[in-house]
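User: My advisor asked me to double-check a structure prediction for PorT family protein before group meeting. I don't want to rely on an old file, so could you generate it fresh from this sequence?
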Amino acid sequence: MKKACLLVLLALWSATVFAQNTDVPSNIMQNHNLLSRSPNSGIGIKGGVNFASIHGGDKDKFGESNSHTSFHAGIFAQFGFGSFFSLQPELLYSRKGYERQDSVFRMDYLEVPVLAVFNISDNFSVHMGPQVGVMVSAKVEDEEVDLEPYNTFDYGLAAGLEGQLDRFRVGARYAHGFADLRKEDSDGNSLDEDIKNGVIQVYVGISF
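Assistant: Sure, here is a fresh prediction for PorT family protein from the sequence you gave:
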């Protein structure tokens, strides 16, 4: 999974570099907007703060829960289809979870968002699209726990806003999970409960 995601992003980066550096006659460029550079195209790195929580009709089963503040970090590639629209796949390591009764429940995910980017101006854009993730570890406090009771595959939608100044970016995003957090209880019994992840992400990034 990790290797496949990295290969996809490397391929996208190669295509972006090729498109930006190919010597195409001006008359062809005018008729083929797919080759024009988006104001915020390129590749880069990003990272920031996660404000993670749980939501759903059955979240009260966990008692009173609070949000958990953590982090995310990763890489992105973006290619423009004209000056207004771009696609941005990312590969992120994202830490989610919640806090309950003085205990921290933490889940680490490897996530791949694929976002449509609408460039409102050269310095401002709206992002939205689907994302998938795989849980790679889970801990209660600092003690690692078995992943068997969890749904290790997650999917959802993400949307947010981003500002850009030269190569630097700053943004905020909300990712809403659709997959139930758990599939079994602590005794191995099957569950059908509506408890899902949600996270607000605030980040900075730099493109190359």
